[in-house]
């Protein structure tokens, strides 16, 4: 009997044909969805919620129908996610008139390997209509919000390119919330005190000043000599409490610079410290196999691939049979795959003395995880590298990450012997017995899963190090003290992968949509790639060195801290993004609630589990949105004009926001002047423009006389410049901008 397999992409057809050999099977592709919602209307009935699909590619549909006519058995092999289930259903409806009297099955495979494909053919199923309904509900919700909310934005901002997607709004709000944290963050400096201690001439250790947790509060408030404070009533009370509660040493973060100076002045170079120590075993477990988001994060951090590139590379690897399906929020590995991987680890790494393989089970911890398939993993550990038609070094780099992570997830822990040392002067010390320098040194005990990685691990021997300490009578001599000031918990804007991580943490969106959400935010100019707000903060630093001329003299210096950091790949909310969210919050406050978006994913879960119907969800949302839209009449919408936007409102001369930024529009000449460089020069926003600014901008090009010649002042993308009567451009020294612009 002749069979037809319909997959989503052309590349898969070649891979699957190779596996099926001489079987009488045709393999074709749909190119994703063969039907979609219409572009010019809502596309569904708001009473019955029936969708009115339109074909996306008539040639592909024609080809599929022709092949189906000649087939006895048809396999709908779209991807194993909700989108794939919906595609399979649309294929079934497309072929309904042809497949009467034929056999039609739904099959899925999480990896494109020979065994997986044959196993799928031998274990077909029917289309899961609950999953189809969940996908259609998500599609209707997103279309409903997009088509009903976006026009409200067009009316408000007179820009018909703006959009307001469900997850898009949530992503923008997360970016804005982080921006607000940075703006509202109080700058709180603190200091720690570090010491260098010599055990013998060729060996020193570094320690940080610690304090018992019950003594810290006392010293951050009281600037009296710490030697005197140990006999206060507070300390006695503390001693009584320690009979019940064990005192804990913590790093001493000092908020008062005067306390820092006082402690350092009481510390002396060449002071003898007594070393006491404890050893503890510390196990480091391997990370779980990749989900879509953790793969994107690692690919970005280690290879500098953005999420879009990562997904394209992963798609290629999947379609050529090298990894499992790459859109997933699961961390599980199929049992047969585990056996294969564990067998490879045993053969390759295990020895009679050391076992590296370990059976593990991972549970998905992601909020609203919906996808039922496996983690992103390799399909065969014996292939340490990949090569296929069109493969690149980038494919190899991504595959290396997945290969390492897959094997590591089924290997033993890396085990360390942690040596915790305390360096004390004793109760007669000038700094008091509650102050202790602490140092930790880790010694590798068992390499475990780190055998896969090339990172350098400390291979020093613990016993050798302990012998050195014992030979020194467990004493060390102080050689240097220093205190470097820093700022407490400086937040940062999110980069692409950090935003994806936040979306996932909130249970918002799906692995298949994260990349497109960020693309949309950038495309609509709601965010732009840039840096944190830049601010310099000057802070005092202190040092005492083992120097004959400066012995025990406190050396004071200052350093500048750039609070914004150097990262240039951050998602910076634009003025337009801020205005859009502010307005959406006024009209549709429920759409700005992150819990609303997360709850919607819960509702989709309930549809998948057949515990709720889509009608209930959609009717409730539709009623909310229509009520909100109806309260927004044209009379109470403050309209501002924009270039490149809609033309439904009369354009007026003035400052406007366009898709290209803030502009000055001159109605008489119908000309737009981008004033973003001007705002940057003046370090103001659109709202900060004064009448003086507007007068200058509206005067452009402004005639002036400069160095005895006549020019026109113009505003370009790099700021103010001059143009002569021959239309040649000339630079004007930035120091002179104010003088000539406002004279």
From TrEMBL:
Protein's UniProt name: DNA topoisomerase
Source organism: viral metagenome
EC category name: isomerase
Keyword Transmembrane on entry: no
Topo IA-type catalytic domain sequence ranges: 128-629
Region (Disordered) residue spans: 217-242
A Pfam short name: Topoisom_bac
Alphabetical keyword list: DNA-binding, Isomerase, Topoisomerase
Domain Toprim: 2-112
Stored InterPro entries: Topo_IA, Topo_IA_2, Topo_IA_AS, Topo_IA_cen, Topo_IA_cen_sub1, Topo_IA_cen_sub2, Topo_IA_cen_sub3, Topo_IA_core_domain
Lineage: unclassified sequences, metagenomes, organismal metagenomes
PANTHER family, per database record: DNA TOPOISOMERASE (PTHR42785:SF1), DNA TOPOISOMERASE, TYPE IA, CORE (PTHR42785)
GO molecular function: DNA binding; DNA topoisomerase type I (single strand cut, ATP-independent) activity
Presence of keyword Electron transport: no
GO biological process: DNA topological change
EC number: 5.6.2.1
SUPFAM superfamilies in alphabetical order: Prokaryotic type I DNA topoisomerase
Catalytic activity, as annotated: ATP-independent breakage of single-stranded DNA, followed by passage and rejoining
UniProt record similarity statement: Belongs to the type IA topoisomerase family.
């Amino acid at each position: 009997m002749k069979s037809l397999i319909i997959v989503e992409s052309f590349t898969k057809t070649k891979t699957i044909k190779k596996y099926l050999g001489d079987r009488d099977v045709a393999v074709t592709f749909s190119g994703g969805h063969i039907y979609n919602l219409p572009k010019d209307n809502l596309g569904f009935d708001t009473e019955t919620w029936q969708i009115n699909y339109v074909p996306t590619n008539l040639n592909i549909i024609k080809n599929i129908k022709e092949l189906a006519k000649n087939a006895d058995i048809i396999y709908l092999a779209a991807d194993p996610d909700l989108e794939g289930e919906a595609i399979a259903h649309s294929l079934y409806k497309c072929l309904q008139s042809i497949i009467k009297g034929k056999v039609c099955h739904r099959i899925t495979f999480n990896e494109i390997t020979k065994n997986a494909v044959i196993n799928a053919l031998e274990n077909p199923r029917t289309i899961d209509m609950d999953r189809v309904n969940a996908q259609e509900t998500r599609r209707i919700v997103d279309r409903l919000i997009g088509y009903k909310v976006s026009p409200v934005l067009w009316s408000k901002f007179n820009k018909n390119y703006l959009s307001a997607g469900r997850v898009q709004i949530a992503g923008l709000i997360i970016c804005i919330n982080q921006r607000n944290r940075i703006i509202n963050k109080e700058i709180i400096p603190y200091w720690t005190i570090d010491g260098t201690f010599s055990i013998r001439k060729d060996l020193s250790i570094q320690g940080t000043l610690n304090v018992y947790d019950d003594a810290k509060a006392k010293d951050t408030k009281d600037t009296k000599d710490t030697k005197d404070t140990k006999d206060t009533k507070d300390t006695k009370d503390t001693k009584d409490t320690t009979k019940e509660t064990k005192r804990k040493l913590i790093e001493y973060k000092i908020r008062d610079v005067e306390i820092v100076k006082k402690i350092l002045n009481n510390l002396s170079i060449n002071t003898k410290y007594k070393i006491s120590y404890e050893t503890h075993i510390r196990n480091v477990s391997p990370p779980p196999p990749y989900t879509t988001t953790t793969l994107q994060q690692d690919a970005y951090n280690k290879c500098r691939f953005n999420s879009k590139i990562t997904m394209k590379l992963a798609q290629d690897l999947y379609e050529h049979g090298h990894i499992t399906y790459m859109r997933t929020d699961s961390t599980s590995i199929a049992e047969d795959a585990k056996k294969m991987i564990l067998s490879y680890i045993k053969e390759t790494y295990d020895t009679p003395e050391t076992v590296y393989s370990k059976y593990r089970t991972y549970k998905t911890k992601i909020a609203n995880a919906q996808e039922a398939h496996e983690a992103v993993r390799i399909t065969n550990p014996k292939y340490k590298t990949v090569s296929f038609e069109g493969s690149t070094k980038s494919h190899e780099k991504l595959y290396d990450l997945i290969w390492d992570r897959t094997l590591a997830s089924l290997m033993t822990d890396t085990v360390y012997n942690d040596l915790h040392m305390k360096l004390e002067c004793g109760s007669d010390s000038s700094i008091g017995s509650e102050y202790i320098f602490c140092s930790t040194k880790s010694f590798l005990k068992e390499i475990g899963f780190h055998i896969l990685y090339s990172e350098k691990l400390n291979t020093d021997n613990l016993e050798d190090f302990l012998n050195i300490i014992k030979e020194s009578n467990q004493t060390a001599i102080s050689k240097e003290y220093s205190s470097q000031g820093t700022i407490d918990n400086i937040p940062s804007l999110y980069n692409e992968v950090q935003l994806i991580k936040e979306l996932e943490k909130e249970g918002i969106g799906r692995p298949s949509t994260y990349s497109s959400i960020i693309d949309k935010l950038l495309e609509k100019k709601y965010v732009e790639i840039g840096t944190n707000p830049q601010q310099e903060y000057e802070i005092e630093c202190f040092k005492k060195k083992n120097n004959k001329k400066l012995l025990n003299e406190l050396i004071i210096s200052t350093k500048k801290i750039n609070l914004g950091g150097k990262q240039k790949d951050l998602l910076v909310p634009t003025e337009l993004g801020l205005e859009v969210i502010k307005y959406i919050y006024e009209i549709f406050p429920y759409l700005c609630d992150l819990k609303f978006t997360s709850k919607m994913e819960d509702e989709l879960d309930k549809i998948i589990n057949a515990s709720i119907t889509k009608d209930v969800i959609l009717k409730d949302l539709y009623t909310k949105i229509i009520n909100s839209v109806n309260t927004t009449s044209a009379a109470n919408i403050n309209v501002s004009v924009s270039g490149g936007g809609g033309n439904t409102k009369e354009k007026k001369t003035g400052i406007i926001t366009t898709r290209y930024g803030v502009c000055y529009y001159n109605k008489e000449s119908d000309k737009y002047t981008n004033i973003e460089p001007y705002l940057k020069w003046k370090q103001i926003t659109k709202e900060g423009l004064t009448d003086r600014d507007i007068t200058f901008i509206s005067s452009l090009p402004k005639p002036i006389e400069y160095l005895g010649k006549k020019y026109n002042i113009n505003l370009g993308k790099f700021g103010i410049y001059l143009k002569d009567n021959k239309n040649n451009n000339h630079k004007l020294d930035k120091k002179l901008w104010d003088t000539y612009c406002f004279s």
